[in-house]
Amino acid sequence: MQKKGKRILSLFLSVSFILAVGCDKVNKDTGLEKAIYKDKNYTAEKRVKDLINRMNIDEKIGQMVQAERGSLKPAEALKYNIGSVLSGGGSTPTDNSPKGWTEMIKQYQQSETNTRLGIPIIYGVDAVHGHNIVKDAVVFPHNIGLGAANDIKLMKDIASVTAEEMLSTGVTYDFAPCIAVAKDLRWGRYYEGYGEDLELVKKLSSEYIKQLQSYGIAATAKHFIADGGTSWGTGDSGYKIDQGDAKIKEEDLLKEEMLPYEEAIKSGVKSVMVSFSSINGVKNHSNKHLITDLLKGKLGFKGFVISDWEGIHHIPASNFKEQVVTAVNSGIDMLMEPNQWKETISALKVAVDQGKISKERIDDAVTRILMVKFDLGLFENNLGDSNLIKNGFASTEHKKVAEEAVMKSMVLLKNDGILPLKKNSKIYVNGPAANSVGLQCGGWTIDWQGNERQTSGVTILDGFKNIASSNGGTIITDIAKAGEADVTVVVIGEKSYAEGKGDDGDLGLDNGMALEKNIEALNQAKKLNKPIVTIMVSGRPRIISDKLKDWAAFIEAWLPGTEGEGIAKVIYGDENFKGKLSVTWPKNNSKLPIEEDNVLFPIGYGLKY
Ligand code: GLC
Prior knowledge:
This protein is of the alpha/beta class and 609 residues long. The protein has helices at 2-30, 44-54, 57-63, 74-79, 98-113, 143-149, 152-167, 198-213, 250-255, 258-266, 288-298, 320-330, 341-353, 359-375, 396-409, 437-441, 460-469, 518-528, 565-571; strands at 65-68, 84-86, 122-125, 173-174, 220-224, 245-246, 271-274, 278-279, 282-283, 304-306, 335-336, 411-415, 426-430, 474-476, 487-493, 532-537, 553-556, 585-586, 599-601. The protein has a six-stranded mixed β-sheet, with helices on both faces. It has a five-stranded parallel β-sheet with strand order 4-3-2-1-11. Helix 17 packs across helix 19 (565-571). The longest helix is centred in the N-terminal third of the chain and has 29 residues, at 2-30. Alpha-D-glucopyranose binds at residues 88-89, 126, 175, 222, 308-309, 499.
């Protein structure tokens, strides 16, 4: 009896052990549904803690890598646990519509939810003046124009429209706003900043950040730090000034350039992007003091720091692995490695295995990234919360906000009384930027460098025609009939450009990034002997001192975007001018960055009716 009893007992014990283990295994697997990180009733902190304890090193490393859609298939996103995907300028699905975008991003998200722990990706784009990469999106004036408008409510409305158009596509990460305090207008990114005045940059960028993020979209304060303070001739990647070196003492950095970042952090910005540039000869992407001690330490930034496009490749080192180690140990949490995402993953693995990057640093980076994903609600809505969309993509309401931005950003710099024009007058409209939505939008529109054949929108010429046609006015574009006109409107400007490709050492009207036909159009207008109203479509001031005397009126329209009718509305007097320069306008090209005696129009200058 005893023996038999023992056998039954041991059988019973082993069966219950197997069941227990099995159950436990089963509980663990099925327990995922009940896992804390899956339950939105827990705080983000608790969910992150639970999740990170479940993650293995491969899953953690994958979260730190951002790949470009063109080099990453959804199946690879799954296999390598990729944390983020981006579209560089012009990198769009074949169907470049909200539907096409949503379908594309769904594929990446589905692959991610099929990973063991189902962590959603975060998809990033440069929606820097509206959701500008998507066809027919409403495109706003670039930031330099919004600096001239200097209108908080307008900034919030622009952020709302941008957010709604992003949510129409499933994109929840915006590499904007650029909070550069631009100091040298020869810089090709001058127009991406709001202006030279620190307070203005702080105010407008923080409003944009708060409003955009209220829609569950991560904003990015960029490019950390002093990207707009580099010196001419120190540029990198073959550029003259972009990605160059800023010679600046730390005390000045703290009391100037750091202030917009402090404000952005107070506004809860989720991400900060490191600048390609250097400070006092040290590449920002390798500067632990800047990123870890100052940004994360002194300023207490709790979001995640992302490198710029292959920005770590600029770090002086003998190989890529070393660049990865230096970047992550400097405090970079997510690596924007559009093409070398696989090499990045293996470099991170080797570095962790060799102890060159500590597990604590990995956990810190992944914690920051996951906190943002939980805060944005991506675990519940991995395409963003479309219930927040009030007005449809490219809706009339959205266009109205953009037209308001155009009208408020224009700056009247001269008016001998010719403006406002009468709606029933005969106007000869000419000039290389009169009839091009592409030039009105400038860089970062559909394509990285802009697209002069940009599709939808209202050109400045269209705007004049629309108003004149319903008020007995005549718009002439045929030079043969120009003699019949009461006044000539000439629209000159700049080619589209972005980043260092727009670096321009000679800011006249007939070279560098100036449109080839500017002078020809101005000379033709002069021959007509009619009053001339000149409008400039540009990302920065250019040298107009020797021409100004020929013009009855002069308006800087900046890069107004798709809603060009706003220009004509103000010139016809439907609205008054509101814009004031947020930058200094130089007299000549010789003393740049601008010196005291080289000012044609000061910051704050702008006339009204
Ligand atoms: C670019 C820019 C940066 C942009 C990023 C992704 O090189 O420097 O502003 O967000 O790459 O397009």
